[in-house]
From TrEMBL:
Organism: Ventrimonas faecis
Coiled-coil boundaries: none
Name of this chain's protein: Guanylate kinase
Keyword annotations from UniProtKB, A to Z: Kinase, Transferase
Guanylate kinase-like domain mapped to chain residues: 2-191
Transcription regulation recorded as keyword: no
InterPro entries according to UniProt: GK/Ca_channel_bsu, Guanylate_kin-like_dom, Guanylate_kinase_CS, P-loop_NTPase
Molecular function, one GO term: kinase activity
Keyword Transmembrane helix: no
Pfam families to which the protein is assigned, alphabetical: Guanylate_kin
Domain of life: Bacteria
């Protein structure tokens, strides 16, 4: 049976950077396209970055029991939802998947597909280094949002508390000191899972 490799970590831990590298290092892993009610941005394409839907369609999907997890953010443009939907794109009999997300969405997918289907890939960075990286990244924005950066940094403490991680069996972590080293360690972990699967057959 295939696995869902679930990449997660606190803000600015390097998930996006690692995800992009893993996409080329582990091309056999499929991606999952989420659904969102936020408007499409210039350059985005339906079905590539997201499936773009409206609130009514999301409600219908929820009523049909196909929404595995949904998060809604209150933005200045109104509420924007992001959802993982069981629309047939996830077929664990055939494929394994690489997904990037939050600990909450990891929990929901784990409830839906079963503990055995999920492999958590938890990325960590020393807090001081992470704050420096977050600040450097924010400084490059046209309108840096430093208060939001601080809010997220503090919220991470509760979101990824040791108790929560332990409760969800996230016992392994990958330190992102040097990007390529971290990518290699995660790729090795992914390959080990493949070997385990073969041995069990
Ligand atoms: N190993 C590394 N060494 C130095 N800089 C890094 C490393 N990994 C990532 N970065 C940089 O740190 C910043 C945060 O990385 P990235 O955006 O990938 O994190 P993230 O976990 O996806 O963040 P968020 O969840 O907040 O969007 C980026 O500017 C990225 O270029």
């Amino acid at each position: 049976m295939g696995k869902i490799f679930y990449l997660m970590g606190k803000s600015a831990s390097g998930k996006d950077s690692i995800y992009k590298r893993l996409r080329s290092v582990c091309p056999e892993l499929k991606s999952i396209v989420l659904y969102t009610t936020r408007p499409m941005r210039d350059g985005e394409q339906e079905g590539v970055e997201y499936h773009f839907i409206d609130g009514t369609r999301l409600k219908n999907l929820e009523q049909s029991g196909r929404v595995i997890e949904v998060r809604t953010y209150q933005t200045v443009f109104g509420p924007w939802s992001y959802a993982t939907v069981d629309d047939g794109q996830i077929d664990l009999a055939k494929n394994s998947y690489l997904v990037i997300g939050t600990l909450d969405s990891y929990e929901k997918l784990r409830e839906y597909y079963g503990k055995k289907a999920l492999v958590p890939l938890y990325v960590t960075v020393d807090d001081g280094v992470r704050l420096e990286r977050a600040l450097a990244r924010e400084r490059q924005q046209k309108e840096p949002k430093y208060a939001e950066l601080c809010r997220r940094f503090l919220a991470d403490e509760a979101d990824f508390s040791p108790e929560r991680l332990k409760g969800l069996d996230v016992t392994e972590s990958f330190e992102n000191r040097e990007l390529e080293e971290c990518v290699r360690a995660i790729a090795d972990r992914i390959q080990m899972e493949g070997r385990r699967e073969e041995a069990d057959r």
